[in-house]
Design goal:
With about 1450 residues, the protein is mainly beta. It is built from 17 helices and 64 strands. About 15% of the residues lie in helices and about 35% in strands. The strands form eleven sheets. Strands 21, 22, 23, 24, 25, 26, 27, 28, 29, 30, 31 and 32 form a twelve-stranded mixed β-sheet that branches. It starts with a helix and ends with a strand.
């Protein structure tokens, strides 16, 4: 017992700040810190000279910078003597490790290290002096604990004492505060690293306790070796299970009088606090609880168990005879009803044979608190808010290590002395009125029986307190749903006891106050079945805020009986995707290279137009393999600000194709998009073979691209197709030049190549545009030879029952990629001299500062009220006519007076004509009388009178209009005075961070409400997120924790002191792609127009968005207005995926990421330590998510997209992030989903399957033709061009004879051959099974360029009548037949001649020979295994 009291008194902890206790519980992290040595001279040398036996030691304390609060316990190192040191600078060696763990994972939780010297004065007293302190940062600003390899760090020391940190002038960041003074040439060398080996002993060490490795921790074995560091590799002692039975609490003088006095004192306390009297009948005891737990002096090893106590008399009246006899035998010497009895047997499996391990008993009383001043208690149905709890007694018992069983009687303790739960306890009788013998029992006693054997005390019922499986006390992982309520008790349960008051739901659970998150976790853990993981709280947490939450349903073993509960929650299995993943980067993008010299020579002789600079000189040629050095300043300072981007499509080379590939196209066209120009679809280009093709043996000679005219002809003398884009000051907005240079440096231009006749996608190519950066040169050009890669995704097929190896298993998907050809492309950038626009402030680029101030918006700049937003260079504005500046007034002034009045239509027109004719006659007569000519005389008096009347009406109208719009104009001008306008540029998925410096212009304090009218502009409320963006963008403005008052769905509020200025963080982030999402490689070719291929393309403006932020005081008056203009910029696309899927179905795909350290832009890290991945999609109707499958497991991005009706194309973007705040995407994917009509075909390999498709005519007659992506496997009838009548119905017969087994897609297009438009499109889903092989052969052939080999096999007709047969092979390039068809009589034998072609490489190949009947159905299949040597 003495050891426990000594350890308990020496390790009392100061709890963290109360605000930290209210925050969500996080995972605790263990650390090891080694303080190595102290370099440099200590200050206060003069004071130390008068002391003797001078030594130096270190003190370490935990400190919360946010709330300026020290917590935990100060750790003190052993003293080191200060002796004259010969080395310079002086060094004091400590090499002292200490350990701790904490769940307060926040950058403002630091360790304060203090250097203290101590010595003895002349009178022998000890004097300690603080010689400086340092601030050791435990957590980095990214809210992650340090996980890198440990390395020595240097801690700078400051003058003064750590008590200076409590001063309010020292705000975060403390190290940069002007009041902090560094000690020159003095530092402390240390190492801080995570210590995962400490996690298994978390239950023995309280959180935030700094301990030395040399300190003996109860429950740990001594360390091996001479170091004595028990925490470096801690080893647990073996635990024992103790059983406690027959618990009796005796209260003196009696239980009735004890509780009566307790109620009176509680009522008296309520009267003093509330000031209103309370009737004694309004307060009653709801429950008596006993908390029993094992304590090692530092804290509870596990969360204490809770049982309910009942008076002895009540138990005797209600329990069975056997239990009553046991109670009576145990209380024979006692008289009266003054005993509390426990009905349960307690099991303590965490006991250790060590003197410091004790068992702590805590007696608690639960009361119902009054509902109001009248003292009337609430009904039972409303007791959820009317429970309060008080601890009245506690006791501690240190078991005798040698004993195995026995009976113990302990005195109960109370009063103000420290106790294990660190809470106030009910008073004890005055000690002055009793003798020593009476003192032992007057506070009460607890009596129980203990045993180490579960079979001991056979008269004790075996229904004991079943607690969840023991686990380390601090929560290692927070619960997935901390707000969930405890599970209700199972209905219909019966206990082994025959008592109606047997173990069930505790009454305090029904009468509990609203639970805090910590107590909800404890209740959640208590409600779990035995053996399941549970979450436990630290010793000082469960009585937090006086809330009560526990379940006693687990005290009965009936909870373990299966089927007793009415409903059972299904357990989710580990997630396994039902769709196999696509590997990112698995040959889905083309690679470019430098053209060969032979290709360059052929292309140069073809006569392509030469690219010249502004001085008519050839542009400088750049090697595409050379690295590019990008200097943004050099691009911005270039005098040639105009950039003419030239794209020359030169030729298309064919590569060797397999037998199943589509035939070589005759015409092609390209689709792509450059910067923010409209999506480009080129005209159809004819592939013309070079004249040198017949003279060369090369199989990859380029075919020139020649523009096809409207009449279908082409001129081979002018090859190539050229496009120009002019990007200059007239196209770029102010400040956009750097964005365009960044676009060229980082973006890859994606080009899709389509068959101009069948409108089928041939493949895609990608070219980097970084070589288009001129870097001060007049013009540059680069030639590429790009691989055109086609990607084919097969169907996702579920495995059959025999292939299932685990739940949700699927066969791996086959993603076939093949190079279809090579595109010869030339890119160029020609610089042009442009006139600079000077004078207008709107032409200046917007500010790049991320701090927006509203100081410049205070004041009216003068001028008219009707011209807001007009740029003015000075405050003098020339007067203008109101009709010229206000269109509404001008419309009123120029409206005829009779407009709007009702007049007869015919009469009005006739009367006007007569009146005008009479006025003209009268005017002519008067002019003649005066002798003047009609054209040379001024207006008459009548005309002047009419003009004056018109002017009078206009003035009246103007005056009335000004009166009506005066209030609105003045309010608009006042709003302009407090409005700040700012422009930012944003890209898809990237967060644009800025701060608005808001100043309170008044001398009174305000609670400001911040209203935002845009969902894409948000206020940063989280302090960690604010700190992250500050570090990301290098902003050093002040940061405040808990600055805003969030109000749920309402606008947040901010408190402003008089004349105070605060920085308000904002983040703009858009996931809407806007018009750019419609960029698609449409298979429908647009109608060709007359256009010059060499003329510059017209620009398209990216959408501009506007957002408004209103800062209003409590009275609704605005203090400031921020008008934000967002100019969207083109974003980088790292990967393009194109999927063809049946219409009106769901596409489910998993895209697997490469190892994280290979992703561009990803943070550097050790292999195997991949950070979590976050994904967002530009289309809110697309489900896009990722799940962490565990350490060292691949990351998959899951997509679920609903396809639309055919032939709709859905485009969206997927952005991937490596940070939890989604600041900058590390990958951006573009996904195209083509919805096609689905046709399912089940067939046999080598056998023709026929089906018919219905064609419906359109409005006019069309000449159409069917095209297939696999013409060797899918044929159509009619085969050529046929007429589709208008509004008619016609069948298109399709024959499918696949060459290989499996499931895959075949595309079928019906194209208008005149307009080159897509009429219909189908997605044929083939499900092919292999045929039965009747015979097998094996031959050996030489590999290399041989002549081939002739072989023969025989076939016997099994039918009695003559039959005709057809021969096919799945490898027509390797095997040809002497005759493709033959006829043989009944029962006769026919010899089939085979011709095997040679193969260049050695290996094996299995060739199938299909023998089909006249209907092309398979009769027999032979397999020939060819070995090439």
């Amino acid at each position: 017992m003495h050891d426990w009291h000594r350890i308990f008194d020496q390790n009392l902890l100061v709890p963290p700040h109360t605000q930290r206790a209210r925050q969500p519980l996080k995972e605790s992290t263990a650390f090891q810190c080694v303080l190595k040595w102290l370099d440099g001279p200590l200050n206060k040398q003069g004071v130390l000279e008068v002391l003797s036996e001078v030594g130096c030691h270190l003190r370490v304390s935990l400190f919360d910078v946010t709330y300026r609060h020290f917590f935990g316990r100060t750790w003190k190192s052993p003293a080191r003597p200060l002796e004259p040191l010969c080395r310079q600078p002086p060094r004091i060696d400590f090499s002292e490790p200490f350990y701790f763990h904490t769940s307060l994972n926040h950058p403002n939780i630091v360790a304060v290290v203090e250097v203290v010297t101590e010595g003895r004065r002349r009178d022998g007293t000890l004097q300690a002096l603080s010689c400086g302190f340092g601030i050791l940062r435990i957590f980095s600003n990214n809210s992650e604990s340090p996980t890198s390899a440990p390395q020595d760090k240097r801690l700078r020391l400051y003058h003064g004492s750590p008590r200076a940190l409590l001063h309010p002038l020292l705000q975060d960041p403390i190290e940069q505060n002007k009041h902090m003074t560094l000690i020159e040439n003095c530092s402390l060398q240390y190492t801080l690293k995570p210590h995962p080996l400490l996690e298994p002993v978390f239950h023995l060490l309280p959180e935030n306790l700094l301990v030395s490795g040399l300190q003996q921790i109860p429950g740990l074995l001594p360390a091996h070796g001479e170091s004595g560091d028990t925490l470096r590799k801690p080893r647990l002692q073996k635990s024992l299970t103790w059983y406690l039975d027959d618990l009796f609490f005796t209260m003196y003088p009696s239980l009735e009088k004890f509780e009566e006095e307790l109620l009176e004192l509680v009522i008296s306390d309520h009267f003093r606090e509330a000031g209103s009297p309370l009737d004694s009948g309004a307060l009653e005891i709801l429950e008596r609880r006993l908390c029993v737990g094992v304590h090692n002096g530092l804290g509870f090893v596990q969360r204490p168990q809770v049982v309910v106590l009942v008076p002895e008399l009540e138990v005797s009246l209600t329990h069975s005879a056997s239990f009553s006899r046991r109670v009576g035998a145990s209380s024979k010497a006692r008289s009266g009803n003054h005993t509390l009895v426990s009905r349960s047997r307690l099991q303590l499996p965490e006991m250790v044979c060590q003197p410091a391990f004790t068992i702590v008993f805590q007696l608690e009383y639960v009361f119902n608190s009054p509902s109001g001043a009248d003292g009337n208690a609430a009904a039972v149905t409303s007791l959820s808010n009317l429970a309060c709890m008080h601890m009245v007694r506690w006791a501690v018992w240190s078991p005798v290590l040698e004993a195995s069983s026995g009976r113990v009687t302990l005195p109960l303790q109370g009063g103000i002395q420290p106790n294990p739960s660190h809470c106030l306890v009910y008073k004890v009788p005055p000690a002055s009125m009793s003798s020593e013998e009476v003192k032992q029992v007057e506070s009460g006693t607890v009596q129980f029986q203990y045993s180490l054997s579960p079979e001991g005390h056979l008269d004790t019922p075996m229904e004991h307190a079943i607690r969840p499986k023991a686990e380390q006390r601090p929560s290692r992982k927070p619960p997935t749903s901390p707000s969930s309520l405890p599970a209700p008790p199972p209905r219909g349960l019966t206990t082994p006891q025959d008592s109606p008051v047997g173990p069930g739901l505790s009454l305090s659970q029904l009468a509990a106050s609203p639970q805090s998150p910590a107590q909800r976790r404890s209740a959640e853990a208590s409600s779990k079945p035995p053996g399941s993981p549970t979450l436990s709280l630290a010793p000082g947490e469960f009585p937090l805020e006086g809330r009560i939450s526990h379940l006693e349903a687990d005290l009965s073993q009936t909870a373990l009986v299966p089927g007793t509960s009415t409903a059972e929650q299904l357990q989710e299995l580990p997630f396994t995707p039902v769709h196999a993943p696509i590997i990112v980067g698995a040959r889905t993008r083309s690679s470019g290279g430098k053209p060969s010299r032979a290709s360059l020579a052929l292309l140069r002789s073809a006569g392509f137009p030469e690219i010249l600079d502004a001085n008519k000189q050839p542009a400088e040629a750049v090697d595409p393999t050379d690295p590019v050095k990008f200097n943004p300043q050099k691009e911005e300072s270039d005098c040639l600000q105009g950039n003419e981007i030239v794209l020359q499509f030169l030729a298309f080379s064919r590569v060797s194709q397999d037998d199943q590939a589509a035939p070589w196209p005759q015409t092609v066209y390209f689709t792509f998009q450059f910067y923010r120009f409209p999506p480009e679809t080129t005209p159809r280009l004819q592939l013309v073979e070079l004249d040198e093709a017949g003279k060369s043996s090369s199989a990859s000679l380029p075919h020139l691209l020649v523009l096809i005219h409207k009449d279908g002809s082409f001129d081979a003398g002018s090859p190539g197709f050229q496009l120009k884009y002019l990007v200059g000051p007239g196209f770029l907005r102010p400040g956009e030049q750097r964005w365009f240079a960044r676009y060229l440096a980082m973006q890859t231009l994606q080009i899709d190549i389509w068959d101009g006749d069948s409108l089928l996608l041939i493949g895609s190519a990608a070219v980097q545009m970084k070589h288009l950066l001129r870097q001060g040169r007049p013009a540059v050009q680069v030639s590429h030879e790009l691989e055109v890669v086609a990607t084919e995704h097969e169907q996702d097929t579920m495995v059959v029952s025999g292939d299932v190896t685990r739940f949700g298993c699927v066969k791996p998907i086959n993603v076939h990629t093949m190079v279809k050809g090579r595109l010869h492309l030339t890119l160029a950038n020609v610089g042009h001299l442009c006139e600079r626009r000077v004078g207008s402030p709107s032409s200046l680029p917007p500010s790049r500062s991320r701090v927006i101030s509203n100081d410049g918006a205070t004041g009216f700049s003068g001028g008219g009220l009707l011209t807001p937003g007009a740029p003015r260079l000075k405050n003098v504005v020339q007067a203008q006519k109101l009709a010229d500046v206000d269109s509404e007034l001008a419309a009123l002034l120029f409206t005829p007076p009779w407009q709007g009045t009702r007049r007869p239509q015919g009469a009005g027109r006739e009367g006007d004509a007569v009146r005008r004719r009479k006025l003209e006659r009268m005017r002519a007569v008067r002019l003649r009388e005066r002798g003047a000519e009609p054209g040379r005389c001024g207006p008459s008096a009548l005309a002047q009178q009419s003009i004056r009347a018109q002017h009078a009406r206009d003035l009246q109208l103007i005056a009335a209009y000004r009166e009506r719009t005066k209030a609105e104009s003045i309010a608009s001008a006042l709003s302009m005075a407090i409005t700040t306008r700012h422009t930012i540029r944003a890209t898809l998925g990237a967060a644009e961070f800025f701060e608005f410096a808001l100043r309170n212009p008044n001398n009174t304090q305000h609670t400001v409400t911040i209203s935002i009218d845009s969902t894409e502009l948000s206020l940063i409320l989280d302090g960690q997120e604010w700190r992250y963006f500050k570090e990301l963008f290098g902003l050093h403005t002040p940061l405040e924790e808990d600055m805003f008052h969030p109000r749920g769905s309402l606008a947040p509020q901010l408190f402003l002191r008089p004349r105070e200025m605060v920085h308000i963080p904002f983040k703009f982030q858009t996931f809407s792609a806007g018009p750019r999402a419609s960029v698609q490689a449409s298979a429908e070719l647009r109608l060709e127009k007359d256009m010059d291929a060499g003329s510059p393309r017209k620009s398209s403006t990216m959408p501009t968005k506007h957002a408004k932020v209103l800062f209003c005081a409590a009275n609704g008056k605005p203090l400031a207005v921020l008008c934000l203009t967002v100019e969207l910029q083109p974003h980088v696309v790292d990967q393009v995926f194109r999927f063809y899927h049946p219409e009106l179905t769901f596409l489910k795909k998993a895209i697997r990421l490469l190892p994280w350290h290979t992703l561009p832009g990803a943070p550097a890290g050790m292999p195997g330590e991949d950070p979590p991945v976050y994904v967002r999609c530009s289309d809110p109707n697309v489900i896009c998510e990722t799940q962490n499958m565990g350490p060292r497991e691949p990351q998959d991005v899951f997509l679920k997209v609903a396809s639309g009706p055919s032939p709709e194309i859905k485009d969206f973007f997927v952005t991937i992030y490596a940070d939890r705040w989604l600041a900058t995407p590390v990958q951006t994917w573009q996904v195209h989903l083509h919805s096609l009509q689905r046709v399912d075909v089940s067939c046999v390999t080598g056998q023709r399957t026929r089906l018919a498709l219905v064609l419906r005519g359109m409005q006019t007659v069309r000449k159409v033709k069917a095209f297939s992506s696999h013409p060797q496997e899918l044929t159509t009838d009619p085969k050529g061009v046929f007429v589709l009548p208008p509004h008619g119905v016609q069948d298109l017969h399709v024959g499918v004879r696949p060459r290989r087994a499996g499931s895959r897609f075949v595309h079928l297009n019906l194209v208008d051959v005149d307009a080159h438009q897509l009429v219909a499109s189908w997605l044929v889903c083939l499900s092919c099974r292999p045929p039965l092989i009747s015979k097998a052969f094996e031959i050996t052939l030489p590999a290399g360029a041989g002549k081939g080999t002739n072989k023969r096999i025989t076939y016997t007709n099994p039918y009695p009548s003559p039959r005709a047969y057809r021969l096919h092979s799945d490898h027509p390039r390797l095997l040809q037949f002497k005759e493709d068809a033959f006829q043989v009589g009944g029962g006769e034998t026919y010899t089939i001649g085979l011709r095997f072609a040679s193969r260049q490489t050695a290996g094996e190949e299995e060739i199938l020979i299909y023998i089909n009947d006249h209907e092309d159905k398979n009769e027999e299949t032979f397999c020939v295994k060819v070995i090439y040597q």
